[in-house]
């Protein structure tokens, strides 16, 4: 597993938690995304879509990772799943603003996450309690997707949306695997996350 090397852990902690730069960088990204989104003329037929990742894109798991040296310790799926069950991941404030503005602008919003289908109910509740509502779809890993890398799984699911007729105007994620591969949106935007890497 990819971990933050010892020499960088203090830097990552300062960036993510104490220095404020993470939030500032997230805000700058969202300002640029909104400039693009609000320049578009949508068809208004309900097929103009935008795709978000969930973790570290809509929801912040910093309260979990601060107990694991901000990525300095190897990922533990059992403790992370236990955290997900608590449904306490807060919204990234800038992402919630972006989400609301895109919804108002007329985009159909899809959340495409690496979480498992078995986590649907708790994910829905966490998203709603964090302030997200009115999405067109929440796409999670089904049993047939288990073991598939994110860089294969996510393009496959985007392709299913395209085949249904949706126009993907934008997508936002914190990992390059959220954004790579076929069935790209017209524009892709990456949010910062130095804590971990998903291929």
UniProtKB/TrEMBL annotation:
The lineage of its organism: Eukaryota, Viridiplantae, Streptophyta, Embryophyta, Tracheophyta. This is Putative acid phosphatase. Keywords: Signal.
């Amino acid at each position: 597993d990819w971990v933050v090397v010892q020499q960088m852990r203090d830097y990552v902690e300062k960036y993510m938690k104490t220095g404020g730069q993470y939030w500032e960088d997230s805000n700058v990204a969202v300002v640029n995304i909104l400039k693009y989104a609000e320049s578009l003329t949508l068809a208004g037929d309900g097929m103009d879509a935008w795709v978000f990742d969930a973790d570290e894109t809509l929801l912040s798991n910093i309260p979990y990772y601060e107990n694991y040296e901000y990525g300095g310790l190897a990922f533990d799926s059992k403790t992370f799943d236990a955290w997900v069950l608590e449904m306490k991941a807060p919204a990234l404030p800038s992402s919630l603003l972006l989400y609301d503005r895109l919804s108002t602008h007329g985009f159909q919003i899809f959340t495409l996450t690496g979480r498992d289908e078995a986590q649907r109910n708790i994910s829905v509740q966490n998203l709603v309690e964090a302030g997200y509502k009115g999405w067109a779809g929440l796409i999670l890993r089904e049993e047939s997707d288990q073991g598939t890398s994110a860089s294969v799984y996510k393009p496959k699911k985007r392709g299913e949306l395209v085949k249904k007729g949706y126009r993907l105007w934008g997508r936002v994620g914190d990992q390059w695997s959220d954004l790579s591969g076929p069935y790209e949106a017209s524009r892709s935007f990456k949010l910062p996350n130095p804590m971990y890497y998903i291929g």
